Amino acid sequence: xxxxxxxxxxxxxxxxxxxxxxxxxxxxxxxxxxxxxxxxxxxxxxxxxxxxxxxxxxxxxxxxxxxxxxxxxxxxxxxxxxxxxxxxxxxxxxxxxxxxxxxxxxxxxxxxxxxxxxxxxxxxxxxxxxxxxxxxxxxxxxxxxxxxxxxxxxxxxxxxxxxxxxxxxxxxxxxxxxxxxxxxxxxxxxxxxxxxxxxxxxxxxxxxxxxxxxxxxxxxxxxxxxxxxxxxxxxxxxxxxxxxxxxxxxxxxxxxxxxxxxxxxxxxxxxxxxxxxxxxxxxxxxxxxxxxxxxxxxxxxxxxxxxxxxxxxxxxxxxxxxxxxxxxxxxxxxxxxxxxxxxxxxxxxxxxxxxxxxxxxxxxxxxxxxxxxxxxxxxxxxxxxxxxxxxxxxxxxxxxxxxxxxxxxxxxxxxxxxxxxxxxx
Length: 425
Ligand code: H79
What we know:
Blueprint: H1 2-6, H2 21-26, E1 28-32, H3 36-40, E2 43-44, E3 47-48, H4 56-59, H5 64-73, H6 81-90, E4 95-101, H7 118-121, H8 128-138, E5 142-148, H9 172-190, E6 196-200, H10 207-220, E7 225-226, E8 238-239, E9 254-258, H11 276-288, E10 292-297, H12 307-323, E11 331-332, E12 341-346, E13 349-354, E14 362-365, E15 372-377, E16 383-384, E17 386-389, E18 392-396, E19 407-413
Parallel strand pairs: 1-4, 1-10, 4-5, 5-6, 6-7, 8-9, 9-10
Antiparallel strand pairs: 2-3, 11-12, 12-13, 13-19, 14-18, 15-16, 15-19, 17-18
Helix pairs in contact: 6-8, 6-12, 11-12
The chain binds ligand H79.
Function: Alpha-L-fucosidase is responsible for hydrolyzing the alpha-1,6-linked fucose joined to the reducing-end N-acetylglucosamine of the carbohydrate moieties of glycoproteins.
EC number: 3.2.1.51
Family: Belongs to the glycosyl hydrolase 29 family.
């Protein structure tokens, strides 16, 4: 008992937001990085850059005046909000967060407080965020904006650009007052209810200033959840580092964010996409620790989601149609990771996510203290025979069919209170 309880991280949230339940149930989100960097596609003046496509302005130290010219070529005529939202729905995604403004400073929406926007500076002249907010709402996919609140390479007083502007002369307060706060207010008033505002890289504000920023924004949409990168411990849920899963189950609401290939923003020469099998195992692994996976895609400058992102997301969605019960609305599994895979749980049910089927057909579930009612494959509900040996369950899988990447089995049991606490509310 003691050992089991020690596997829980004791991190706690000071004051819990009252609209966290949908987030805890969601388990699978879609992150979208889309901006002028998507048009550059990882290349500048014939040189290819690797890493993160959305960092190319920084990597190539592109002067603001030159970077502004990219907007004139950015015309995403293939953009189709309904197709993006439909892909999210087909993939089994429950929430979408898209870059309204990344570090480059370009507003991907119709902002009145800047001229550096998709509506004013690009030939596209339309607001794609409006269309996406509508398309996701129609499909009951929750919608939110990523907003880089401190880093803004386009602005004299924004964080980060030290190749054009002198860092010692920056007035961050002025930048917040003139751009970041007014833009955040636009986003929170012009697109209907936002489920999430995803802040990134805090800076330039004291704890009291961050608190008053958060309060003034929450006042506009109290139900909206703010990510932990708003800074100063003031977020409503926790984000881990980019592409990080915690080693043990974590209490409270949290999220792991992952790139699909090796970049957030589109890079033409990055083909290192995770297969659907890898996505499914990642999703199950994050869920087994009690968190959400928000997986990123990087559409190109024309507005197309890369072929492999579509393909592997759709395959993931097909797996979720059959196995979603073992992912959505689950809590962390109370049996720790095993050589064969991981576990998730609901009251009276333990889901066994078997990544590696045992060679001898005997699956060992150790340390299970309750009486077992039945064991069955989630797909098809076929019952399986099993033996008890003290607190172990040994399940006979010899007649089971293997699913791609993750075959799920369900242990239904009574005496919930004999199991270690797994409720992470
Ligand atoms: O939006 C994505 C990143 O652009 C942003 N957060 C995620 C969600 C982010 N901002 N800062 N960082 C991540 C950390 C900075 C990483 C860097 Fe690099 C390492 C900057 C320069 C070296 C990665 C690799 C970017 C360029 C090369």
